[in-house]
Amino acid sequence: MADLRHTAQTAWQRPLAKVAADEVSGSLAALQSELTRELDRDGVTPADRYFRFAADMRCVGQFHQLTVPLPIPNGAAWWNPRKLAADFHAAHDKAYGHADAGVPVEFVNLRAEGFGRVPKPPAPPELPAVEGAPTPIGKRRIYFDRASGWTRQRHLSA
Predict the structure, then answer these.
(1) Pairing of strands 105-116, 66-70
(2) How far is it, in rounded angstroms, from Cα 2 to Cα 113?
(3) 8 and 111 in contact (C-beta within 8 Å)?
(4) Residue 123: what pLDDT?
(5) pLDDT at 7
């Protein structure tokens, strides 16, 4: 019932301030191409595919990294390093309780996910509402805990 999912990543360590849009889009395109081959093998038509991209990033000089979503590379205005740095610092603040927007940021890895939509069966029709109280179908004893022990028999409803 879940859509198919393939992942790919590549080590890609570069300072954000020195990265050009075509450099990022070229690397993401290579990852997407890898995922497209996987989805082709699965028999997923191009109309039933979608992709997501992200980057593992960190403050320059730090060891820990955070994964930050990247926009899909399309059009001339897709690459916005200031927004990406702001997104990273917001994620840093959320994860660690502090952030310094003046600290330079760097890439560590690029990630891509390729999805193939799987047809879902139709939902079963809703049953009409039943009026009145439920009808018991049986009784049994119930054990809650040591303090309460076994309780009297309870009704089981259909």
Answers:
(1) unpaired
(2) 14
(3) yes
(4) 87
(5) 98
* Domain assignment of residue 148, yes or no: no
Q: Which residues of the chain have pLDDT under 50?
A: none
Only one residue has tokens 């980057």, namely 55
Angle, CA 32 vertex, CA 30 and CA 34 arms, to 5°: 75
Tell me if 70 is assigned to some domain: yes
Annotate the chain with DSSP letters as a single string.
-PPEEEEEEEEEEEEGGG--HHHHHHHHHHHHHHHHHHHHHTT--GGGEEEEEEEEEEETT-S--EEEEE----STT---HHHHHHHHHHHHHHHHS---TTS-EEEEEEEEEEEE--PPPPPPPPPPPPPSPPPEEEEE--B--TTT-BPPPEEEE-
**34 lies in some domain:** yes
**pLDDT (tens digit, 9 = 90+) per residue, 38-60?**
999 999 999 999 999 999 999 99
Range of the domain at 15: 4-116
End-to-end Cα distance, the chain: 28
Between the CA of residue 59 and those of 54, 83, 93, 107, what are the distances in Å?
Answer: 16, 15, 12, 9
Provide the whole-model pTM.
Answer: 0.75
Q: Report the number of distinct structural domains present in the chain.
A: 1
Quick check: is 141 in a domain?
A: no
CATH number at residue 65: 3.30.1490
